[in-house]
UniProtKB/TrEMBL annotation:
Protein origin, superkingdom: Bacteria
Keywords attached to this entry: Membrane, Transmembrane, Transmembrane helix
Listed name of the protein: Putative integral membrane protein
Residues that span the membrane, as ranges: 134-160, 172-190, 196-213, 218-234, 240-260, 267-286, 323-345, 352-375, 381-397
Biological source species: Streptomyces himastatinicus ATCC 53653
Disordered as annotated region, ranges: 405-424
Length: 424
């Protein structure tokens, strides 16, 4: 009788562990549907919407007009929301003619319209291509948001799978999924821009790295290369950094972690180097805008000013100002810095090679901010660093929970690693 009851209890708990992550996704999506009017259809969103309409077959001018109408409608709605909060205007928040004024002001399209600035978005075709059917069905803002939100929901589930692959129990893995949704990853990932797909695909590459380190070489390589290929088409400037960073993590693991010297880690290094070479070759063959163009974009305010002759020297000076003031701001409420330390500690306590991969992937956000030290966009540009918190903090919670029990229950530091012949 007791054995039957135990079996029934195990069956019920197994079903609950499968249902709760899906219910979490539903709650996450419903919250963002409720918050949808507060999201902004930004200048970048306008350009992705225009590309989506072009993929649907509209001529450039017609696609531009449709995207502009979506932008102006959202701008007018935002101004109306602001009036409803104004101490005087909220008493009689009459709608004004902002929509028509916006259409008249940008009759030739939103600024900036420099061809070099437009080239930055032409090199990101995958997001508007994936969103095109949803844009046709739901409209520009809703269609782009649906794709971004879908990728963000998927990213949380991938975090759950990743933590389970690291042998975290279901409640701890679910905590990682929740953190993915409630941190700035969920905020920026649900906007009608590329952050949602970029972050989810980076998590997929991290999961591929975990599988490679565990000896699942074919599955890990396929997942990593597939996520990299799609991510490169979504936003190449982000994924051109991922390959070298993961390659550096693999090399460090091979050099300094004796138990990581097996075929899985070597495969991680080879796959990462392959992705780095492909990114470099594709950038050259397709003549994608490089870092020089990105710096000119920064220091000419999207080519609305004349190009500068010494962008690298200006970058060093601006970075010095930016990071010093960033540290001063963080010092007032250093929650991010504290969480990053705790996340890195949790990941290191479980597996040093995986922690190196996690820190390398999160570090791409800091590299992006260093290349674009724009204060008003900082938290969006370095949003990848929150992956260290999302994955590492649940591992630390599990570590501390286990330390409260018997010391024999503590997992070994290299526990999730597996030798290339399948032995743990």
């Amino acid at each position: 009788m007791s054995s039957s009851l135990s079996a029934f209890r195990v069956c019920v708990m197994g079903r609950i562990h499968k249902v709760i992550p899906l219910l979490t996704v539903v709650v996450f999506v419903l919250l963002h549907v409720f918050a949808y009017p507060s999201t902004r259809f930004a200048n970048d969103s306008y350009r992705y919407a225009r590309s989506a309409y072009e993929f649907l077959g509209d001529p450039h001018r017609k696609a531009q007009d449709k995207a502009l109408r979506a932008y102006c409608a959202d701008t007018a709605a935002m101004l109306q929301r602001n009036r409803m909060l104004h101490q005087i205007d909220f008493r009689d928040p009459v709608r004004r003619n902002e929509f028509q004024d916006c259409l008249a002001q940008y009759a030739d399209g939103l600024n900036p319209s420099n061809p070099r600035y437009e080239a930055l978005f032409h090199a990101r075709p995958a997001y508007p291509l994936l969103a095109a059917p949803f844009v046709w069905l739901l409209g520009a803002k809703a269609g782009l948001t649906a794709v971004a939100l879908g990728f963000t929901a998927l990213g949380g589930l991938l975090v759950l799978v990743l933590l389970r692959a690291l042998r975290a129990p279901p409640p701890v893995a679910w905590l990682g999924q929740c953190l993915y949704y409630v941190t700035p990853i969920g905020l920026w990932g649900s906007r009608p821009m590329t952050e949602g797909p970029v972050l989810a695909l980076m998590v997929a590459m991290l999961l591929g790295a975990v599988w490679l380190c565990q000896g699942r070489r074919a599955a890990g390589a396929l997942l990593s290369v597939g996520a990299f290929a799609l991510g490169f088409a979504v936003k190449y400037s982000s994924f051109v950094l991922v390959g070298p960073c993961l390659a550096a993590a693999g090399a460090l693991a091979l050099m300094f972690v004796p138990r990581a010297r097996h075929k899985g880690t070597r495969c991680l290094l080879i796959v990462s180097l392959f992705e780095s070479l492909v990114a470099f070759a594709m950038s050259r063959v397709l003549r994608l805008p490089g870092l020089e163009a990105s710096l000119q974009d920064t220091f000419t305010l999207h080519w609305t000013y004349a190009e500068v002759t010494n962008p690298w020297r200006l970058l060093v000076r601006l970075d010095a100002n930016y990071w010093w003031q960033w540290l001063q701001t963080e010092a007032l409420a250093p929650s991010l810095l504290l969480l990053l330390v705790l996340g890195a500690w949790g990941a290191m306590s479980r597996s040093v090679p995986i922690a190196l991969c996690l820190i390398a992937l999160g570090g791409t956000g800091l590299l992006t901010s260093a290349a674009h030290p724009v204060a008003m966009e900082g938290d969006r540009l370095y949003v990848q660093v929150w992956l260290i918190v999302v994955v590492g903090l649940p591992l630390l919670v599990e570590r501390l929970r286990m330390s409260g029990g018997s010391s024999d229950a503590l997992p070994a530091r290299s526990d999730p690693l597996m030798k290339s012949d399948g032995r743990r």
